[in-house]
Design a protein that fits this description.
The complex is a heterodimer of chains A (about 290) and B (about 450).
Chain A (H helix, E strand, L loop, with lengths): L18 H29 L9 H20 L2 H10 L5 H16 L3 H29 L3 H13 L2 H21 L9 H4 L6 H6 L12 H6 L6 H10 L9 H8 L12 H19 L1
Helix pairs in contact in A: 1-2, 1-5, 1-6, 3-4, 3-5, 5-7
Chain B lengths: L4 H4 L3 E4 L8 E6 L5 E6 L3 E7 L13 E8 L4 E3 L4 E3 L5 E4 L7 E6 L4 E14 L23 E17 L7 E6 L5 E6 L2 E6 L7 E5 L12 E6 L6 E6 L4 E5 L11 E3 L12 H5 L3 E4 L5 E5 L3 E6 L8 E4 L8 H6 L9 E3 L5 E5 L4 E6 L5 E5 L15 E3 L8 E3 L11 E4 L5 E6 L2 E7 L3
Parallel strand pairs in B: 28-29
Antiparallel strand pairs in B: 1-32, 2-3, 3-4, 4-5, 6-7, 8-9, 9-10, 10-11, 12-13, 13-14, 14-15, 16-17, 17-18, 18-19, 20-21, 21-22, 22-23, 24-25, 25-26, 26-27, 30-31, 31-32
The chains are: A mainly alpha (about 290), B mainly beta (about 450).
Chain lengths: ~290, ~450
Amino acid sequence: MFSKGTKRKFSDGDEEISDESLVGARVASSYSLQRQSLLDMSLIKLQLCHMLVEPNLCRSVLIANTVRQIQEEMTHDGSWHMVTEAFCGPGQSPSERLVATEVLCRSREQDAEPKLFSVISYEGCREEEVVADETLCSVSVSDTVSNVCLAGRIGQCWEKSELSGVERDEEALEDSRLGSGEDEEIDTEDGASTESPKTTGQVFGTFEIKNSSPAPDSALEELFSDVDTSYYDLDTMLTGMQSAPKMGPYDILDSLAPSHSSPSIVSTPKCRSDLNELDHIMEIIVGS
Amino acid sequence: TKPVAKTINNCLIFLPFGYAADIISTVEFNYSGELLATGDKGGRVVIFQREQESKNRLLSRGEYNVYSTFQSHEPEFDYLKSLEIEEKINKIRWLPQQNAAHFLLSANDKTIKLWKISERDKRAEGYNLKDEDGRLRDPFRITTLRVPVLMPMDLMVEASPRRIFANAHTYHINSISVNSDYETYLSADDLRINLWHLEITDRSFNIVDIKPANMEELTEVITAAECHPHQCNVFVYSSSKGTIRLCDMRAAALCDRHSKFFEEPEDPSSRSFFSEIISSISDVKFSHSGRYMMTRDYLSVKVWDLNMENRPVETYQVHEYLRSKLCSLYENDCIFDKFECCWNGSDSAIMTGSYNNFFRMFDRNTRRDITLEASRENSKPRAMLKPRKVCTGGKRKKDEISVDSLDFNKKILHTAWHPKENVIAVAATNNLYIFQDKVN
């Protein structure tokens, strides 16, 4: 989509833009990139939990809250909506969009771990290019208040050295992004039989069974209310019983943020059906 | 007790200490200060005892020597979750002494144990049925009866587990606290707080439960809890969102509704993505008087008056220079470090740890503060500790250390203050340092 090495110019031949708004625009776009990098870092932290010992719940909750904060802000200023929309194309229903996002992320996870970071940032940053331009345009045209707000936040969040670090890395990121883009493939079947890294849902789910729809047998529910589900997940994964894909990293954001009202994000129906299947399987095992 | 101004004026001397084993995970003086217990990552407890004062010694106060060492917890495996349960001791709390033996509670992530530490310095000799070696005597050889006599022997300190309080916590235990009735104690994990009776191990009362019906809605966890030092019905617990709730056990069986709610309103100008993380409270401690409580969050220590819920009465900055480094500290996970804090015996001073083996003491009356370092390289035995200073910007003076040279692997998370005297114990990774007031 973008030819290698060239950036779309902020103003196409328009020389009336003042220096101030140009600086503000640059600051805004690097803020977006840094925010994205913080989001990526947080998602990786959630996934790379120690497999042997139970992860620290307090740490996981704090990271998840940070992820949700970023997502809410991105939803608020329109970046999040654009990320998901531009990704999957308009005309798709919200749930289809979600599946595509989640599956794409998950198929990446099957590759070696080191690739994961650059690939996620590919998904994010690639769209950020589009987003940045749009926000840049909106920043220059509309109120300067939001401009100041962003600048103010940057001053508090980030060090100057980190700012320049991100800008230097932009070029490197672009190259790696465009390279790995060709390998993109949607594969729904693959995920079922392989192990997926732990996500927040699974991190929290390690401890307790998820209560979604009312159980057909409440006594059974009660009996197993303290049993955690990850054991069964592993079991079903290994035996290939479960056919539906597991939650990917971006699903966390949806399941963790019930309060925001963005119309493009909808709770995953697929996840709920997984749990119903699990209940059903449990019934069979215990019933016989 | 001596006024703490003397301590703040840099009169601490360093007592050499040879204890360097596993990473120390908790430090606690007993009620008299005679004993000091440490727990480590390997599940071991080491107890130090203060030597009796002797007129012959130049120091009028004794040094701490190893009194007893025992393995408190072993690593376990949870088969249902396929996860290891660490043997690391998270907390030790002493019980007040009621007879010759000493009792303490030690807790790892899942299990609390009551240990009895007792001395044996006499041995019975002259048994009828067995030899001194313990071998059975030939009955036909016994012609007379004798009464066994107690003979002195080398002091032996034995530790034996008297109670094991298990299977009550689904999540990781972060606090235990003995109640002022000396009959009950509470244990807190990430989502629940249980009340135990010291004599009963097979059940406990759940008094706080903040687990949501749907775990995906979880946004807040319990980080610390403590019983009030005098009112046995009152306890507090802190959260990862920087709030403290004070509960009264007389109000209801389940104390989900607090009696008091302490939270400082957020400063909107300093809001960032890390605001919540740095507001998470890592420790809460009542003052000895019971009128105040102190909380530690990532960058500061706050003193609260229990009668005022809307803001703390005092705030002390521990290492404000880290505020601009929060992103790096988030990346290397240091932002999740849980620092503890403690009061001195008279509640006039507070102490907490920082990075680079630095620890900070604040005098509440004079508002003076001091930064000291716990390291062998920089302290000679019996020499006075030199105050340290971190250079935050501009020209670095001699003896100052710049923020970028701080070693974030050398963190002082656990400190303890003697209940009556100016003696402090500081755990620096796997070394224990004991400092005490210089005597003129």
